[in-house]
Write a structure and sequence with these properties.
This protein is mainly α and 388 residues long. 39% of the residues lie in helices and 9% in strands. Helix 5 packs across helix 8.
Length: 388
């Protein structure tokens, strides 16, 4: 018996262990089955829903902006010189690069760069030529970055309604001229050519940013859409009258002098930056979607224009959402569509650029833009489009 008892005990122990293992295995399988059911049935956590909300698909074709909306939008820049205006409108079609350039400019190692040193540093950047040009006029670059939604919508309007935007600018220039506020000065030359008002820098190497408010346009014809304006930093502007000027910015670098306006023909062209023998070779400016960096276009029609007929199926390209679940809302225009005194604070960071810009904030290593214009209201080149 003494020899048998250990064997019995051994068998009993093994039986109990087998039962325990079987019970444990059964429990694990049941738990896995229950977890699978719960996972399939339970909704996604609230934080996941908030981080990726379902958005309506962008429209096939956006409703054109009215003259009142366009005048309200272009009022802050309509009296800028033609070269500066060309850089603003083309650079506005690349809003994410505006954000990157503003951060880059405000970094300590770049904020003091001037002349050849600045041009050499800009050569290392991949931004569109129009964006690089605005780095030489930091107050304007910061203004566009601080009012990013306005910048987005201005660029979208220039892409889809270039002729209407140009008509709006001319309409406002004629209003300012009729009130005797728009005249030649030591900073700018104002002339009329074929019935269109042309504004050029008095010196081809210096850009002045004019300071003015909506009173310069005289009686405003759109009571439901008051004109916007950008307040200027204290002590920035000098002189008397309705239009004054701040300091001049040197533009002797390689990024200026290529834009050519044809106001009557509603065209903006790319030409040589240096004197060219014989007829000047110019070609229409072409938007380059590669510099869009994933910022969706305002509507599918514009997306197809620049991304091709299959733009909606380009899942790998973030220039336009491929499906309704991926689509982001069309741009809001709160101040452009509601009556009452508009406030530029309502623009803030653009809804379609915000996420892309924050994605690169740490890699850029630069603080948010500082200084520059305020943010309230009152009262580039595509294929074949880069200058040679």
């Amino acid at each position: 018996m003494l020899a048998v008892l250990p064997a019995c005990e051994h068998r009993l122990v093994m039986q109990h262990r087998i039962k325990d293992w079987t019970a444990m295995l059964t429990a694990v399988l049941c738990l896995a089955s229950v977890t699978g059911c719960v996972t399939a049935q339970e909704p996604a956590p609230a934080w996941e829903e908030e981080s990726a909300p379902e958005q309506p698909a962008a429209p096939e074709a956006a409703t054109p902006l009215t003259p009142a909306q366009l005048d309200q939008m272009t009022a802050p820049i309509a009296l800028y010189s033609d070269p500066l205006l060309g850089m603003i409108l083309t650079a506005a079609t690349y809003p994410l690069e505006i954000v990157e350039a503003a951060r880059w400019l405000d970094a300590d190692e770049h904020s003091s760069l001037k002349g050849d040193a600045l041009n050499a540093a800009l050569e290392q950047q991949s931004w569109d030529t129009s964006v690089k040009a605005l780095v030489a006029v930091p107050e304007v670059l910061r203004m566009m970055n601080q009012n990013l939604e306005w910048t987005e919508q201005l660029g979208d309007a220039f892409l889809s309604q270039q002729a209407d935007v140009m008509d709006s600018i001319q309409r406002l220039r004629h209003s300012a001229a009729a009130s005797d506020a728009l005249q030649s000065s030591p900073q700018e030359s104002v002339a009329t050519e074929d019935g269109e008002i042309v504004i050029e820098p008095a010196s081809p190497d210096i850009i002045y940013v004019p300071c003015y408010d909506p009173a310069i346009y005289g009686p405003w014809p759109w009571p439901g859409y008051p004109a916007f304006y950008f307040p200027f930093p204290p002590d920035y502007c000098y002189g008397g009258g309705l239009i004054t000027f701040g300091i001049g910015f040197g533009i002797t670098g390689p990024y200026w002098g290529w834009g050519r306006w044809n106001w009557r023909g509603h065209g903006f062209y790319v030409g040589p930056r240096v004197p060219h023998p014989g007829p000047v070779p110019i070609r229409p400016w072409v938007h380059n979607p590669a510099h869009r960096h994933g910022v969706p276009y305002r509507d599918m029609a514009t997306a197809r224009r620049y991304l091709g007929p299959n733009a909606g199926a380009w899942r790998g390209y973030r220039g336009f959402p491929a499906t309704p679940s991926q689509a982001r809302a069309a741009p809001r225009m709160p101040s452009l569509t509601r009556p009452g005194p508009p406030l530029f604070q309502s623009y803030g960071p653009g809804p379609r650029v915000r996420s892309e810009a924050s994605r690169g904030a740490f890699s850029l290593g630069a603080p948010a833009s500082r200084g520059g214009f305020g943010g309230r209201g009152g009262g580039g080149h595509g294929a074949g489009g880069r200058p040679h």
